[in-house]
Amino acid sequence: RRSADGGMLASSSVPAATKRQKITAEGCFAAIAFDIDGVFKYGRNWSPDGLGALQKCEEAGIPFVFVTNGGGGLTEATYAAQFADKVKSAAREGTPEALPPINPEQMLLSYSPWKESLAPHLIEKRVLLVGDPKEKVLNVAESYGLKNVTHYEDYATMHATINPFRQAQKSGTSHTAVANSSVASLASADVQDKDPFAAILVMCDPYAWFEALQVCVDVLCSPTPIQLEFDPAAPYMPVHFSNPDVLWKTQHPYTARPPPRLLSTAHVRIRFRQAHLNSSSAALCHCSWARFGQGAFKIALRALYATKLRHLRVPEETHDERIASSFKQWGKPTDSTFRFLEARLRSLAPDSAQQPKAERFYMIGDNPASDMEGVRRANIFHRTAALPEKSTSWAGILVRTGVFKDGDETNLAEVVTDGVAGAVEYVLKKEGKA
Length: 434
Known about the structure:
Elements: E1 28-34, E2 41-42, E3 45-46, H1 50-60, E4 64-67, H2 76-89, E5 107-108, H3 114-117, H4 119-122, E6 126-130, H5 134-143, E7 149-151, H6 152-158, H7 164-171, H8 181-184, E8 197-202, H9 209-221, E9 239-241, E10 247-249, H10 265-277, E11 290-292, H11 294-311, H12 319-326, E12 327-329, H13 335-346, E13 358-365, H14 368-384, E14 391-399, E15 415-417, H15 420-430
Parallel strand pairs: 1-4, 1-13, 4-5, 6-7, 6-8, 8-9, 9-12, 13-14, 14-15
Antiparallel strand pairs: 2-3, 10-11
């Protein structure tokens, strides 16, 4: 099945060892989805309350997963292990060291849904992989079972004239000299490169935007771009983006703060509405820290693809259809990612003859335009597709330790707390487990 975002919906499962929660007397199953950045992690610093919060969830029998628009080209197992180490290292003095088991299946990275939703359909097909570090993203693709993956950098190396700046950078010569003998010898016309591409996967941010954009546009125009510049008979090339964030919070400093009027509540609200319309979590990042993310790469690719179509004299009236059919978005707050998240949360329910009559899911995050927007959309989805035998609802809990600041729009968050400890305490009280 496909979601409204164009992505494929997935089911998921976790080891039985994680299924600790009992269904309440009224037949309700509750579980928590934690964001990571801005909740457990602030820049390079980690919350001293993270370990204690997870321990309380464990003691109360409330299962949990982690969902992030990041991933950095790591496998879920590696990310889970590194996360556990950081949470334990940052714990307050006196906190018991025991950390509840964190399985890879509880770690939902931006590209995690692809393992079940995309990989089975692409196992033997050729895929263009975009993202860095190269070795890490290739390792993730291999762990998902993909057997015919070409990294964008390898493809550009294979066909040296794709990127006229690559050899110029290495040799220190002008890029206008790409036809000299040293470069011509690198051209790989004899390389076995006949397999057509079936999809483009933008797993995470590429280091070399120019090269990645050029290769992606070439493949969007033709599944065999070395043989044919544009193939009008080919199906539209799907390009999957794992993360919609246009901007993300880093520690890049400016020497002067923006004028106060630029950070006024009204300004933030305007920026939030823009982010809401664009399905991006960009706008609420403070401008002193904002750097371009994968969503910006998508904007650039869309613009350049449209420009190339005009250059090829492809009828203008077909451009929107081509782009809409090709571009597939994943990550918070998309329906595709939240349906996958719900499947993963349901897999935490105990194996019991008593099936829950209701599901209450909590999203603890720091971003109204990403975390809370996903909650808002999920509640609309379940009100529209309500099943008589079971009700599903989401509650959003904002924390003040990340993107959200007092005065910002909450996007229908149920409550705002100072941090992850307060957020978990709120859930436990609501579930009668405090």
